[in-house]
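Encode chain A's predicted structure.
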Amino acid sequence: MNFIKYMYHEYEKDNLGYLSAQTSYFLLLSFIPFLIFLLTIIGSLNLPSDELYLYLNSILPAQSYTLVAGILSEILATSSVNMVSLMVTLYFATKGVLAIVVALNKAYCEQESRSTIHLLFLSFVFTLIFIFILVLTLFSLVFGKIIGEIVFNYFHLHTEFIILWEYLRYIITMLSMIVVFSFIYKQAPSCKEKIKLKDILLGSAFTTLSWTLTSSAFAYYVNNYNSSYVSLYGSLGGIFALLVWLYISSTIIILGGEINSYLYKKKKHII
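Encoded structure for chain A:
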């Protein structure tokens, strides 16, 4: 009960809802350019782009998926992707990650001692790490089966290894996400004392599992039980559903940091 009260109090005190909304806004602006960049990589590697669309369809609400797929098809059919798309993605994504850094610093009640340039650089590094884990997740979950078959056929491995790979690629993806979130939770707060790895593993595991389950649950809910987006926003319902999904994702990341801060403060007898 004390833990629940702490989480609610900190959520209100630190204006985490506002920071989640700020993060969601910038992530929304970088979402389409990032997908275009991914499709460019997929095309250069001669991988089937249909697999990406199937994956997006599995994690996004139907309205959001229809909107995103239409935008991607229209842009890719009319223009080639250049460095501008990548720069736009990095800029807006960095602004979104910066809001997460500010939220994590508030969670630990630390006064920010780093300069603005340091914070921007740190957010940029975190953004690159996020992009790396997203690409890794994409290639593991979406193209993992295809890549595994190519590798196993090249080394003439038995089919038992292919069956084992079906499970391993999900485990590797989840562990990689935990490692990435652990690094961010460890480095983002401006704490006077170094945060130990064991103090952030629980929050990292919470973020990884909660984001995976919540994304699937939200998509299922919107697709099957909720028509309010269409009745309220019409054809723009897909945008708002996507924004809500990004807001939930941002909130989960910040809550993972709040869990870590609770354990940190309890260990230091601050609460």
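DSSP finds eleven helices and no strands in the chain.
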